[in-house]
């Protein structure tokens, strides 16, 4: 697994790979604009080139843009749906310009219209947007949900149905968030539990369709349906749950992005979490203490929910 984290872009797109490398990332995830805004300033071609050059120069092995929080491609409300589709088109265009591997997004919520209606609307949204860009290179990844409210995607069957019904080979895939899995009721803290999870992935999602992980411990208990991230080993999942994930050969070459809590102005907790995860890899030496000064973090642009 290519271990990495979500890093901010407040100091410029080209600084994100530099920051990622400095704190020990092999992979980085970014926002391409503020996640709390529908619109943002356009990404200039020059900034995109600088970002791509920095990714290559720093040796970053996998990259992703995380979509903002406002869009809902499953909304039954016509005005909201059209606005969401415009925002998604913009995010996908930004991701293509930046040359990242993936655009990660939350499937959305059916808002009491029902799961079937929500999935149908989501499929229609994705099909139309992908067909507008038939030669696109960025893979669109649906992220599993914690199951709060009317959100879609806490069940593997819902995610798989979207992929099969959109039926655009090579354009869709999945991101599995460990906190969301746990919050939705999936207990992978034991050999038996992790084995069952692996079997479900193979049978329902297809392991080759899992293209990224979000590596987050969980503050809330199993099955809580609460999306509350915690630092690695400090939450309800604990060290052993992550040991199995990072040593699973099925995920060799798959990026695992931290979205764990940060202190204001510092990526120090990311450095600690990355060292913890690397220390879990079979045969790895005990992680050395981090002696360098923690890189600055811009909280508003680096935190993912």
Account of the 3D structure:
It contains ten helices and ten strands. Helix content is 39%, strand content 14%. The chain has one domain (2-302): Divalent-metal-dependent TIM barrel enzymes (TIM Barrel). The chain has 305 residues and is an alpha/beta fold. The strands form two sheets. An eight-stranded parallel barrel has the order 1-2-3-4-5-6-7-10, surrounded by four helices. It has helices spanning 15-22, 45-58, 78-98, 115-132, 156-166, 178-183, 191-205, 238-246, 268-280, 299-302; strands at residues 2-6, 27-30, 62-66, 102-105, 139-143, 172-177, 210-215, 217-218, 229-230, 255-258. Residues 286-296 and 298-303 have low confidence and may be disordered.
Topology, please?
Elements: E1 2-6, H1 15-22, E2 27-30, H2 45-58, E3 62-66, H3 78-98, E4 102-105, H4 115-132, E5 139-143, H5 156-166, E6 172-177, H6 178-183, H7 191-205, E7 210-215, E8 217-218, E9 229-230, H8 238-246, E10 255-258, H9 268-280, H10 299-302
Parallel strand pairs: 1-2, 1-10, 2-3, 3-4, 4-5, 5-6, 6-7, 7-10
Antiparallel strand pairs: 8-9
Entry summary:
The protein has helices at 15-22, 45-58, 78-98, 115-132, 156-166, 178-183, 191-205, 238-246, 268-280, 299-302, and strands spanning 2-6, 27-30, 62-66, 102-105, 139-143, 172-177, 210-215, 217-218, 229-230, 255-258. It has 10 helices and 10 strands.
Strand order of the largest sheet: 1-2-3-4-5-6-7-10
The shape, in one word, is globular
Percent of residues in beta strands?
Answer: 5-15%
In N-to-C order, the SSE pattern is: EHEHEHEHEHEHHEEEHEHH
Helix share of residues?
Answer: 25-40%
Q: Can you give the mean pLDDT?
A: 93
Q: Considering the protein shown, what is the CATH homologous superfamily?
A: Divalent-metal-dependent TIM barrel enzymes
